[in-house]
């Protein structure tokens, strides 16, 4: 299923993100928001670009829509992100490219407007930052993230290779950076940065940058070891990083170059480039790489003191990484660590007690791991720190107040491929010819969170559920099939009346979404019992969907979100 995205801010990065996104089959741009650009002007600005050339395709408008190669994109003009109708547009991810809403509280407004997740195209003071090729593997389902800066995206891959191979004691970086939109065409007021107010096209302007320090956020080992500055120069695009470092391990310049070249052809291919040609800045215009190491430009003073040069298209390369990060984020299951570890987030200190169990019928019926049915349940309890871990059972239901694990050999492979070390160690000594109970030490809510995080990707289900709701996913094959055979949602009776108030907007939105997602029309809306061949929402609060290929995992997650929103 395609990822629906919206773009907030149709400036340099916003427009280039759209160009990149249109080349990806798994991405569907459904909306753009910019309060300063009308649809006809958005069409003009997208089609004609002084730096990257005219868009090679058909661009026009249709009312309040931008139409590109026949693909219709809604254009909104809201100043308040919370007022943008992302939810009604079906937006999954918002690309926040205004440069204004770079903190969590500002980006959260997009979530309030109905979006599921936000990627900020700038450094953030409080949102987690990710650089593709460097630390995207640490992404853990966070709702709001930053793609860092274009300079950090250039510097971090280079610093990673050098640090991994030779070690970095400390270093200084200078980025010789092209003009950006915040600079002045003629001398003008710039109270926070007097030099920044001088004519961009006629000066080399020293400026500050947090790009080098930000590397320490994506490579913790380098935290506090790098800092830097910027020189703004009168070129329209393409910048260059000058990294000077003191190494822990002695090396020749040739050895350093060889390590970078190897990485560019291996684990960082498509991110880090390598050239030995006599290049200049315009040679990299339109490059989709984050960083291109210039082997001929660097110098070495001693075996532990070296200067390295790396180029980057600060517009197009960065915009490509934004889309790459989006695709990666969408491929990662949503985990529950933050919900479990942050008790303060819930009224009356509510926390989640979650367990996963194999049902009696499926364990007795099937002999292979591929056919095991998994129940994912979430019960809301008022207990402070939890003493209950995941429970894997063969018979009966889980004990909710004891640290109790019961397992059989059919799920051993699943557990050992993703469980924490303490659990794996317990499993090693077990005779799985018989059902067995393991009783490790009690763990607190943070420990539960770690266990949830480790198991979620193994089971290929989304257990990040907000609300007092039981959900059963029954995967068809190997617990990795996109299609679901059955989804059952039970809402407690005390919440049923709120869910079934058909006159309320959340319920109408839920019914509308279900109709669209399943291509099923609901009947008897006025009786507050909604039925169809595949779906039943009854007065006792049960929603049941039965059949093959009903919803994929992403749509099932959306269903859960919609139900929780209706209950909020």
From TrEMBL:
GO molecular function, one term: glyceraldehyde-3-phosphate dehydrogenase (NAD+) (phosphorylating) activity
Pfam families: Gp_dh_C, Gp_dh_N
EC number: 1.2.1.12
Keywords: Glycolysis, NAD, Oxidoreductase
Protein's recorded name: glyceraldehyde-3-phosphate dehydrogenase (phosphorylating)
Similarity comment text for this entry: Belongs to the glyceraldehyde-3-phosphate dehydrogenase family.
Pathway: Carbohydrate degradation; glycolysis; pyruvate from D-glyceraldehyde 3-phosphate: step 1/5
Entry keyword annotation includes Nucleotide-binding: no
Subunit comment: Homotetramer.
Residue stretches making up the Glyceraldehyde 3-phosphate dehydrogenase NAD(P) binding domain: 3-150
Highest taxon, organism lineage: Eukaryota
A cellular-component GO term for this protein: external encapsulating structure
GO terms for biological process, alphabetical: glucose metabolic process; glycolytic process
């Amino acid at each position: 299923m395609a990822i629906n995205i919206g773009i907030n801010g149709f400036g340099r990065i916003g427009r280039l993100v759209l160009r990149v996104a249109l080349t990806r089959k798994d991405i569907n741009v459904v909306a753009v928001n910019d309060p300063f650009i009308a649809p006809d002007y958005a069409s003009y600005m997208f089609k004609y670009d002084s730096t990257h050339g005219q868009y090679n395709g058909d661009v026009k408008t249709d009312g309040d829509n931008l139409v590109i190669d026949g693909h219709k994109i809604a254009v909104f003009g809201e100043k308040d992100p919370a007022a943008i109708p992302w939810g009604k547009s079906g937006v999954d991810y918002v690309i926040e490219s205004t440069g204004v809403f770079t903190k969590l509280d500002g980006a959260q407004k997009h979530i309030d407007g109905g979006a599921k997740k936000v990627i900020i195209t700038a450094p953030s003071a409080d949102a987690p930052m990710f650089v593709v090729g460097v630390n995207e593997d640490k992404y853990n389902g966070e709702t709001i993230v930053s793609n860092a800066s274009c300079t950090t995206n250039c510097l971090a891959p280079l610093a990673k290779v050098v640090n991994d191979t030779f070690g970095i004691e400390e270093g200084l970086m200078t980025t010789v950076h092209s003009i950006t939109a915040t600079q002045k065409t003629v001398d003008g007021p710039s109270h926070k940065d007097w030099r920044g107010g001088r004519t961009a096209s006629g000066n080399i302007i020293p400026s500050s940058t947090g790009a080098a320090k930000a590397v320490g956020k994506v490579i913790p080992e380098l935290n506090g070891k790098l800092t830097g500055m910027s020189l703004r120069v009168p070129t329209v695009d393409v910048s260059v990083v000058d990294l000077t470092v003191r190494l822990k391990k002695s090396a020749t310049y040739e050895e350093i170059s060889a390590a970078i070249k190897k990485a560019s052809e291996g684990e960082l291919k498509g991110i880090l480039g390598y050239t030995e040609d006599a290049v200049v800045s315009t040679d990299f215009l339109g490059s989709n790489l984050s960083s291109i190491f210039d082997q001929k430009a660097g110098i070495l003073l001693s075996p532990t003191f070296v200067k390295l040069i790396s180029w980057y298209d600060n517009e197009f390369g960065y915009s490509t990484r934004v889309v790459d990060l989006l695709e990666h984020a969408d491929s990662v299951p949503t985990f529950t660590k933050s919900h479990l570890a942050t008790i303060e987030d819930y009224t009356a200190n509510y926390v989640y007690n979650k367990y996963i169990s194999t049902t009696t019928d499926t364990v007795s019926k099937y002999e292979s791991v591929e056919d095991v049915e998994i129940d994912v349940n979430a019960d809301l309890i008022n207990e402070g720190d939890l003493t209950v871990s995941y429970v894997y059972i063969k018979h009966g239901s889980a004990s909710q107040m004891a640290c109790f694990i019961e397992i059989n050999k059919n799920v051993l492979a699943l557990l050992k491929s993703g469980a924490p070390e303490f659990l794996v160690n317990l499993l090693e000594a077990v005779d799985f010819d018989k059902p067995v109970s393991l009783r490790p030490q009690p763990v607190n809510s943070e420990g539960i969170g770690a266990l949830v995080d480790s198991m979620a990707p193994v089971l290929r289900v989304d257990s990040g559920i907000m609300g007092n709701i039981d959900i059963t996913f029954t995967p068809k094959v190997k617990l990795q099939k996109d299609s679901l055979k059955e989804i059952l949602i039970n809402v407690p009776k005390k919440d049923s009346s709120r869910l079934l108030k058909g006159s309320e907007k959340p319920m109408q939105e839920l019914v509308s979404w279900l109709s669209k997602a399943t291509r099923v029309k609901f009947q008897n809306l006025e009786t507050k019992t909604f039925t169809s061949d595949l779906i039943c929402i009854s007065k006792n609060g049960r929603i049941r969907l039965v059949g093959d290929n009903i919803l994929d995992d992403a749509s099932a997650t959306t269903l859960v979100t919609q139900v929780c929103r209706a209950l909020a």
